[in-house]
Automatic annotation (TrEMBL):
Keywords recorded for this protein, A-Z: Hydrolase
SUPFAM superfamilies reported in the protein's UniProt record: HAD-like
Matches recorded under InterPro entries: HAD-like_hydrolase_sf, HAD-like_sf, HAD-SF_hydro_IA, HAD_2, HAD_sf, PGP-like_dom2
PANTHER family, alphabetized: PHOSPHOGLYCOLATE PHOSPHATASE (PTHR43434)
Any one of the GO CC terms: cytosol
Name recorded for this polypeptide: HAD hydrolase, family IA
Single GO MF descriptor: phosphoglycolate phosphatase activity
């Protein structure tokens, strides 16, 4: 159905939330915040880490974010792809699809794809190093659409959060929510899958 897949990285292709939740919990404890790991995971998925910082650390939000990234840095390469990801990317590629990454992570995302043998399946992507506004701003998606002359009707943004879906819609693309949890509520994605193999 779709020929071009724009993939979110953390939480969609890579199982990053266990590490991120542990780091967020350690940061919250340092700041005296009484948030459980489950609550931190909920807010990271439903909103964002920036939301947690602004809502709970308030006037110390910038300091909270800086400390989170400081604690996260030595663990950035820990996450691995979800088990089904290599086969899904390969199967879609075999059908003629092209894959792109749209992530808030820095270029370490491509280092990890290379390490895990997936870089050969990825045409291109954007990272934090490209200095686009963060999703749900559609600028990074529009850049890839224009650079590769992607047909919007044949292009889908796949992600695990509302901000991924909103970015896709604002870029005029189809959207697919990868929903492994039941708490995100009504999200206006064109398609919702619980397993990426449902895209085959």
């Amino acid at each position: 159905m779709w020929q071009n897949y724009l993939w979110d990285f953390d939480g969609t292709l890579y199982d990053s939330y266990p590490m991120m939740t542990e780091v967020a919990f350690a940061t919250a404890q340092e700041f005296g915040l009484t948030l459980t790991p489950e609550e931190l995971y909920y807010w990271m998925k439903k909103e964002s880490l920036r939301y947690i910082a602004q809502e709970f650390a308030q006037e110390r939000s910038a300091e909270f974010l800086a400390r989170f990234h400081q604690l996260e840095a030595p663990r950035l390469a820990e996450p691995r792809p979800f088990p089904e990801v290599p086969a899904v990317l390969q199967a879609l590629t075999n059908k003629g699809a092209r894959h792109f990454i749209v992530t808030h992570r820095d270029h370490s995302a491509f280092d990890m794809l290379e390490r895990d043998g997936l870089a050969k399946l990825i045409t291109d992507g954007t990272t934090a190093d490209d200095h686009f506004p963060a999703k749900p701003d559609p600028a990074s998606l529009r850049y890839l659409v224009e650079k590769y002359q992607l047909v919007p009707e044949q292009t889908v943004m796949v992600g695990d959060r509302l901000l991924d879906v909103l970015a896709g819609k604002r870029a005029g693309l189809a959207t697919c929510l990868y929903e492994k949890d039941d708490f995100l509520g009504a999200i206006p994605a064109d398609r919702i899958v619980e397993d990426l193999r449902q895209l085959l």
